[in-house]
Specification:
five-stranded mixed beta sheet, alpha+beta, about 35% helix, about 25% strand
Length: about 425
Amino acid sequence: MSKNVVRKVKFMLTNKNKRSIMILVIIMERFILHIDVNNAFLSWTAVERLKNGETVDIRTIPAVIGGSEEDRKGIVLAKSPVAKQFGIKTGEPLYFARKKCPQIQVFASDFKTYRKYSNQMIEILKEYTDQIEQVSIDECSIDLTRFLMKGESVEDKAKQISTEIKEKLGFTVNIGISHNKMLAKMASDFEKPDKIHTLYENEIPTKMWPLPISDLLMVGKRTIPKLEKIGIKTIGDLAKRSETDIIKRFGKLGKTIWEYANGIDNSPVQVRDEKPKGIGNSVTLPHDVEEIEKLDEVLLALCEQVAYRLRKQAMLANVVNVQIKTNTFDVFSHQKKIPEPTDSTKYIYSTAKELLSTLYKSTTNKKVRLLGVRVDSLVDKEEIQLSLFSQVYKDKEKQKKLDNTVDNLKEKYGYDSITRAGKMNINKFIRLKD
């Protein structure tokens, strides 16, 4: 075990005879690595193309991964370093990307390929530790605390991991190293690509505090102006404020971001897969839709897939949310808590339909280009006992049997093997995305 892995803590205990006893406790310091694939979607596409005989590495030319421009799903999902030099940003419409770089080359996303390389990377990491938490398809946290040999440094181990991924799989990663997950994640976001950075507690004042407050985890777009309004512009500004004051202003979020600003995070690496906190689905329409009747057809298709996934997870939803995006890229959403937790397509759809009607009436621009449905506040099905005396119990049981029958047919013959009459027309011109 590395000598840096342990730290000694001394404290005093007083026994019944009021005699002080010196206790020496050896606490094992955690060593957490956060591994982030550089330009994941574009890198994985590049590697796959090269393996299939292509001679040009798209990482060396102006290139992006994006949706279909013809189907109006033209959003930049990933960009090459050369594309970045033109000011192209992830998440912006391809229309704007082409204005910045007319010669940009666009490649379609391929999540089957992405999942393959993601799984291959995880398999490599399993050779180093069994403590792996996959944060997303291209990011994970690993705990090396119990897996370092005597005299072996965590930095050398990180270099070994980085080199093995590059040589075996053909793409690069950034690795952040620290004693907790949050600091390791922050470190991985430092200079890219193909870099290894540390962010230990003694390095926080020089490496993290000078960064803008927007770089701190859990600080969202809505929180930034509120913090800046009270004079907090850097992470250091937040760290030096009174914890009590920040909690008073921002509640539970305030406690979290104050602790993060001071490098505090005791959360363990979650090895087991966690249940989803929410399930959603959305679709970009092939053309702007103004008639709410046509939107209702799309809404039913979205609700059916969301409810299907909900039942697959054996969970029930308490909240339904509907979102629309207009052709001017303005986003509006509305949510509603439903009376009882449900996984029923019928009840999720009826609530979503009500929300869509409210949104439609309150929006002056009726030209909708994207529609989305999401269910939140999920609970395990086994934890909920629906009252047998509910007035709608019989109706729910009838709907449950219908949903189960539909699900079984989908499982046996494929998801699209059976569909509801109300969504038959919409399936002809849209393809839902998870």
